[in-house]
Queue: 4 jobs
Job 1
Amino acid sequence: MKRLSASELIQKDFIENRSRLIDLAAFLDRIDRASHVSLESDFRMGSLQKAIVELIQGGSDRVERIQNLLSDQSILLLESAEKNQGAFGAVQNGCC
Amino acid sequence: MGFIDPHIHMVSRTTEDYEKMAIAGCLAVSEPAFWAGYDRRTPEGFYDYFRHLTEFEPRRGKQFGIRHYSWLGLNPKEAEDLEFSEEVIALLPEFLGRSNVLGIGEIGLNKISRNELRVFQLQVELAIEYQQLIMVHTPHLEDKLKGTRWILDVLRESNAPPERTLIDHVEEHTAPMVLDRGFWAGITLYPFSKCSIPRAVDLVESHGSDRLMVNSGGDWGQSDPLSVPRFMLEMRLRGHDPKAIEGPTLSHAIQFFAQSRKFSMD
């Protein structure tokens, strides 16, 4: 079988990704309406904004660059994980 | 076309899910021991869980012609108490000879603490001592990259054989380092917190499918026990031929699991 061309991939997945983009825009608008605080004041939203900038930079490694931007790049072990079991999706100390 | 789901927590799924998976072509599942959603208070709680994985689930699967294999171990979320962890690990040898046990798993790291790392090391050593296959859980979200690096360090220092070790939940930023070191890699098809189906196909297209297999990671969270057949559909829609689809959804799992003499598709 022949793998899909770029135009065939666009035909197949454009509407779904258009929807995702609008959902993201709606999410940001919703937060704006709910708060007068800037988006960057929450570490997760600050990371999301940096990721959006990365998204429009181009190149074929957007996913890996964004994954790295949202990852803890440190090497230190936690002394204890007893009261720290969850993950947030972004790095709290504002690294990256 | 048949498939194997190499990582699904059937203990959290209904019998109807077994039936739906069988209808979709599921031939076998492998179920690693994991966190129940709460910390078990006693080692005996784990003992009962290991019995469940080795006695009850194989019977449920058999009703629908699905072979059920399991992996036993202490997950990293419950590994902070070293003394407790050692008591649980001491239970494992009694179960490793059971007919559906493929190895030690899912073990690994969660928040990457000193005690998690020690418990992971102990279980890797046990797996090597008892010549068991190893299934490794890599951490979630922002912790995955750091945790995967530590896991690879521990496996190297322990001389764990890469060809007998599956490192699971890889994503775009961790798959290359796992595959480049000769390990098997699992991609978990999970709606939000792991890898989507289109991205998983992207990974296969970018890196090839050698030593890669996909799984649903189905559990008590938002997850889909039919995500492996959905992945097969996405590959077909993107123009991949049946042989290419069979690798990450069936034959690679058979190749990896068959290193245990207990695994059979006959």
Job 2
Amino acid sequence: MALANHPPATADIVALKARAKSMRRHVLAMARGPGQGYVGQGLGISDVLAALYFHEMRWDPADLKAADRDRFLLSTGHYSIALWAALAEAGVIRLDELVTYGADDSRLEMSTLDTTPGVEMIGGSLGHGLGQAIGMALGLRLAKSPARIFCELSDGEMQEGSTWEAAMAAGHFSLDNLVALIDCNGIQADGPVVLDMEPVADKWRAFGFATQEIDGNDLAAVVAALEKARATDGKPHAIVLRTRPGQGVPTLLAREKAHFVHVELDEWDALIDELERTEADHG
Amino acid sequence: MAERAYTQAMGRDEATGGRTTIDAPFGKALVEIAVVRDDIVGLTADLGKYTDILPFRDAHPERFFNVGMAEQNLVAVAAGLARTGLVPFATTYGVFASRRAFDFIAIACAHSNLPVKIVAGLPGLTTGYGGTHQAIEDTGLMRLIPGLVVIDPCDATEIAAATKAAAAHPGPVYMRLLRGKVPVVFEPEGFDFTIGKARLVREGTDVGFVSTGFMTERALDAAEALEKRGISAGVLHVPTLKPFDTEAVAQFAGGVEHLVTAENHVVHGGLASLVAETLFDAGMTMRLTRIGLPDRYIECGSVPTLQKRYGLMMDDLVAAATGGRA
């Protein structure tokens, strides 16, 4: 069966921005329930997920297991809030389910488990994503499938040795059907990134990746970088995404760069109002 | 002065007794399976030569991936391959699989019940390279992972059969590997291997050996020696440590006076612990002697010297069965 979504020749950036804004709305709606969550990360990566799910990836929300689907791996399982927002926006998850985020027995777990539709791997034990992405890329290449693998990982996650074990192999196996999306938001569990990982792009280049470095909250730049990463010249692709945790909600953007954002009960209406008033361009 | 034995280079054979042997039974079985199943893929982490998987590489080079010395990635890549519908066999040494890649076996494979087969060389005391290479606690570690099948085969016949059973099993498997020239203990003709099933290989009424891995070969030899002394010894071979055949063990225990467990592994966490748990759960109280490795790291040396020093020989089993009167 043909997959529903094929990237058009030119992207409708205005429509994608509306998608990203809508996803941010979902992120806030989810976090409001428990009064907390990985809001900063979710808002920060919404533009990237909008570009993937509503432009670049060939997939079908009605056939999530299609053999030739492009796959998105969320290695940082705690960013689940962003994935649920994308899947809700695509109609895979009902909007009225979003309030269950993080609640007991909810499918919208605080960290991804692959029992929820649309989840391609169990994320959360950091350093797992890229290796599994390589296995998928090898398997799909063996099957002569046109499918591509998009694997998100984070700047903090680059401190896991297994990330580099995988990076070595991607170059060695010439996996040009693989795109590593490195979300550099500058935070990790203990606060601001605790080990200096710069220069990030140089590291990926040294491991054999065709590497681009862009503003991950500039949708047009994200779309252009993904388009460039379609090149099939025997090199895996890396896109270093400089993102801002809390993007789209100025108060959160300005707040201390925390791994896990706490919001006071009486703040939510104001934050949602901020998101609604913020032009996607200026978030 | 007695002749001094030396630590042997890697790649030695597993054959220890006078039995006939088969060369690389795992690799040969994998090739045989892959002829009819194009979903079988092979991986190694720079130990292809030492884990008998080269016959598969030579037969199906496009389906073989050497990821270099990177065991976490070995297992992660295998998980990814499995998610595209393939059935990966990933080889390395037991120490590296169980110690370095534990999180990947647990979370990337077993948590999703993916059909990844970990084939683990140098089980227990089959290498003289010391604690870094001797997988003395691997089956204990692996049996703690929910849903993971753990197999410690005895001989060439069982390795071939267990490889086929692993390929047919829909979930993850950790299988210990005997490599090189591997002895034939079980008659291959009509041999049946079922995951989770113990095998009564010798009946006996006085003492019962419950053994796994190559220790079953020694238990059979010990039972033979005991018979000459008028002691009736049975042998229950338990190749699958998880799921554990509690029914067969309890039944076997009920027919003897004294149980002796025998494993090429530390005596806690593995077979001996499983048998003790089984007896306790069944409300049985009886004499139990545990033969296996002590709770310590073991030095470098020649394998025969080490196996003698740490009590894995047939004589040690005879001594255990007779209460030390070997």
Job 3
Amino acid sequence: MTTRVKLYTGFIRFWHWTQAALIFGLLFTGFAIYGIHHLMPFGTALEVHLALAWLLIGLWAFAIFWHVTTGQWRQYLPTTRGLLPMVLYYAYGIFSGEPKPFTVTPAARHNPLQRLAYLGFKLLIAPALWVSGLLLMFVGAWKTSLLGDWLQPDWVAAAHLAAAYALVVFLIGHVYMAATTGTPWNAYLKAMLTGYQEVKDSNGKPG
Amino acid sequence: MGLIGILLGLTLLIVLAYRSPEQNTPAAAATLVAVLFAATTAAQALAAEGGADRSPPRSGASTADHSKFPSLQGPFSSGPEVTAACLRCHTEGAKQIHDSIHWTWEYAHPRTGQQLGKRHVINNYCGSVATNYARCSSCHVGFGWDDADFDFGDENSVDCLACHDTTGDYTKSPTGAGHPTEATVADLARIAQHVGKSTRASCGSCHFYGGGGDGVKHGDLDSSLIQPPKTLDVHMAADSLDFSCSTCHEFIAHRQQGSRYLVKTDAQGRIAIPGRDSERPACESCHGRAPHASGIGDTLNQHVERIACQTCHIPSFSRGGVPTMLWWDWSEAGHLDADGKPFKLEENGRVVYNSAKGALRWGEDLIPEYRWFNGTVRYTLVGDAIDPETVVALNHLDGGPDDPAARIWPFKVMQGVQPYDVEHKTLVVKHLFGDTDAAFWKGFDRDAAIRAGMEGAMQAGESPVAYSGSHDFVRTEMFWSLNHMVAPANQSLDCADCHSPEGRMDGLTGVYLPGRDSHPQVDRIGGLVIAATLLGVLLHGLGRFLMARRARART
């Protein structure tokens, strides 16, 4: 038996998909600036990159406010309970069609592995991108100051690039996991679009 | 008719003024508006009437008509006679000139202490002024500088017409020590009666022809700037701003703003205002330090900090149709034809060989070279030791990426091969122009020319030593900062001209340039991790797919 549970509120979906679009835009324009591809002229890419960055900063400001005021930030608290079964599931059980050792509820939308991955994104990758990105944006303001004496602009650029590569790694894993490992395979993707997911009520109590 | 209108308006105003003050009603206000309207219309009509019988005001219109001056009626038999006439009214003119670099050809560099100026520096075109005075001084604002003993204190030797001729007919003899040609002498009275402010053409009569011909020396100064299209020079084009040279190179007491020896690279963006120190001719004097629309990141204005305006706004030089010289090899000079006569070879209308000069190369519409530059230029002077194993920089640009006053500037780099003294390891002065066979252009004897050149240079105090008797040739280069031929904004450089590998900033170190510079180690590690992740995901997905198919097949 399954129950149709509302997992993702309108705000979560808006936040997720806007963020996704902005991040893909930033990656595309960022790699154009760096010169990995030449599908967009340098000047245009830079302007768009900056515009998208400010939009994402704005979105994040809203999202952080939302997380704090709603207590949703607890969704990302790491836990070791049930972590090992999750790892074993993805490493082994998933191949033989075993049920996932985690039942999603609106109060705990993320399995322990997800929590770690998203927390890593929020606490490591994203801040690295923001700090290095803002430093690059305002390089003229600090290059001749005390900070400029020990921080080189090219190091900041290298950090920004490294964080961007880490973001790509995260995205590959995230897209694969989120878009293909549901039951049926596209269930999670559907849930993030509609907000609703069919949740097995084998343990009897949803939420 | 306009006058009637104004009188009518005034009458109404007076009538209005005599009404009692309490009656300050809307009606009164309406009357006032009507009166003002009438007065304005009348004034405009008056102005239009007046315009019909007056010639339109000309910028710089003078209150003096020099053709009416008795002292300029002539006839004049020489340049100094004209000057004497000028000085009768312009009593301080010659004294001011005597104090200017156009007269002294000397510049004591305030930062390096070097004694510079045309009289002292050596270049890789003809070389030096010493012992070649009568030829070089055809571009001196004076008459009669034909040897080292020229009297720099003589007021009548100042050449007023060189700069103030407006007829275009004043021509100094190329070999006459600054004196005008015979044809010009015959016409001096008319020319003197038509003096005026300097123009692009009068400044250009010398500055466009440096190095021995049109456009030879600078690359951003040639005769194409006399009537330039807007695409060539946005400031000087007649259909644009129509600037003369002195619009930016402002003259105060006959001393101009702007120096090639100490370039204003860090002007603080103050517009020239009477009574204030002038910052001209820096671009920032008029355009300020933030001339671009800020856009999202104010990216372009951030460039101002480290990049000279000229770098992006002079996309190429010598683009007015006049080639500039890029290479001058003196070691090839002196070859004579079968009859023992000097000869010239031309390619595409350009002299590529001249017995008097050597092998020459030219270019047009050229991409500048870019260097860090803080405005100070140091010269390798005749007495300075050189390393003949290297390419000797005849001038050195101060500043680097760590110098906050330095910015990236565009340059024409003139290259060449010129003689040096093998014993003393110094550059040498060549005696090129003169009446005796010691002059290279007469005798074509290299040794004799260097001996005479160094002898003269020593007498003039330009060289501490005479010629040792043995010379060889050394590669030299010289940097000429580019400041003119500023293109319209839509023709300035595109981001990718510099922000790309092998772009214009290729080889310029000390600055991180997005789009040009990469981080190979980050790329390698990042690429590996991304590839591993992709592979892992693919294998994981494939595994699931195959297992699921097998499971389905079993049931």
Job 4
Amino acid sequence: MTAGTAVMILTIAAIVLVTFVALSAIFFIWLERKVAGRIQDRLGPTRAGGKFGWLQTIADGIKLLAKEDIIPANADQFLFRLGPYLAFTGSFLAYLALPFSRDVVALQMNIALFFMLAVMATEVFGVILAGYGSGSKWALFGGMREAAQVVSYEVPMALCVLIPVLVAGTLNLNVISQQQAGLFWNWYLFHDPFTFLAFWTYFTCATASCKRAPFDLAEAESELVAGFHTEYSGLRWSFFFMAEYGSMFAVSGIATTLFLGGWHTGLVPAAVSDWMYENLWVLYVLVSVAVFIAKCWILVFVMMWVRWTLPRLRIDQVMTTCLKYLLPIACTLLLGASLLPLVWHSLLPGWVKLPFRNPPAFPAAPR
Amino acid sequence: MSLGDILFWIVGLMTALCAVMVVVTQHIVRCAIWLLFTLAGTAGLFFLLGLDFLGATQLFVYVGGTLVLVIFGVMLTATGPFIQLRAGAGEWAIAIIVGLLLYGLIAVSWMFADWSKLPEAALPDDPKQMYHTEQLGRGLLGDTSVQPVSALPGVPGKPRAAEKQTGKLQPPPSRQASAYLLPFEIVSVHLLVVLIGAAYLARAKRKRVVAASQ
Amino acid sequence: MASVGLTQYLLIGAVLFVCGVVCMAIKRNAIGVLMGVELVLNGASVNFAAFARFHEAFRVEGQVFALFTIVLAAAEAAIALAIVLNFYNNYLTVDVDSAEELKG
């Protein structure tokens, strides 16, 4: 492959991904309003674009584009402008390593999962900068809370992610998904009790690290006006929202890939899907991308459902939940998941067949 | 000039420029932001070298952890006059001269260094072929096949000449010595201990207040 | 222009190193000094990484030592910040020039 081809492929992949992130943000904003409406026993948007209000987000977008872009006099101009872009970049970069289907990924990486976690850890800088650069007390408080919260929740989240990695023996998301091919009891969610519990713990941490309710202390309207984006308006503000919805989809993508079988439907045996991959590649890719996106959307929907159902925590409760409950739980699960195969092997007689597959010692890099 | 070269020049020069901006900028918060770009650029250099794991660790630990800590420190102490502490013009002049001299010294000593004593570098062109994480993992476990020549004694490498002459049976290469696994664990525990120690050091001193109020 | 090899990476690493040294010397803000230390460590890890890529003998060692550098930098930053915050609590300043008492 020449350099020109590589650049072209990467450019196309980047354009497709940016379009995808933007379009899914548009969809999610509409969905969020509809979900909120349904839960609060009202209709949600109904005017723009007919009965279901499906053009509502476009109308919002036009409003945001036409809005005056205000930078407060007290703000640090450079940092204030930089904040939204940094937040969006961190959220978008994670998509580079997210596999939508077998070998349908922008960047084949051996450590895709680690890369995704790493770049999503940099998203917090956008929020800190926005908080500091706004030159407003509310924004500064929101930014500091956000930083403390996200950095703390990263620890149990990374530990939970390690559990399926321990089972799979690789950080390559493509390989992890492929290992869960076949019927749904092959998914790592049902692999053993520890992975089952790890999924729920991970999902809680992921909700918190996307700063979604009930953990949305950074933008708690009742205390902090709007938190770190109090002073933002127009397009810059919408970048923060794109980042939030983007990282919601990305963490759901990680959960789907690690626990829920990735792009596999879980309804057809592995032999059938392999046959489809060999002979009907286009159909296979279309179906599996649709399945993957649908699974992620379901998880995002659950996040919205939780947001409009549970009341918001206090900041000290948020930190207590993380450091006193989720962190010990995650550590216990990791310990249990690593001890389980050993105990199983050494305590049970040889004729008891091990239901847990042994991972290969050194998984080969994909070609 | 290949694509990798062009990318190297873009990323490398941006990194260097941001490093210079860290020094030149007076505003301490902006300084931290330039440091953020420098660290991210360094991670980019690691990715360009094909060392994915290193680049991701740099982003995760350094950018996502250490730098957030530093920015916290900056924001807790950046009040009033401390946001911009200026050094005098004379100090600047001396610093720039010393810095240029130091850079010249390093560059010159590099040029006159005798690199022929190091083993020949005959590495494949495509970094993805040889330098992915698997190699690092195997190295941590002491697999000698990933590093055929060892520069330091007692670490994975070719069997010593003496062993070759005696013709003793070699143990299987994958379990020869877990050379870097123990140091790696020690460093991890060290980091944990240091973080606890730092939290202890930096905690709010309530005892003194209680004693004073009594 | 020559193709990119060890030289170019080492030169970039040297830029980071020198910037770090100058930064340590010239900043009066204690956290600015800390940033200089981070730059120096980064320059070192760029060198390690470059050797890991371009010399067979350091294939694993280069990566491992760069990893150690990153972890130790994190530890060092945590301790240094704790000291700076204590200093700030006691003297209400972060100017390193005013840290001249030996006994607190």
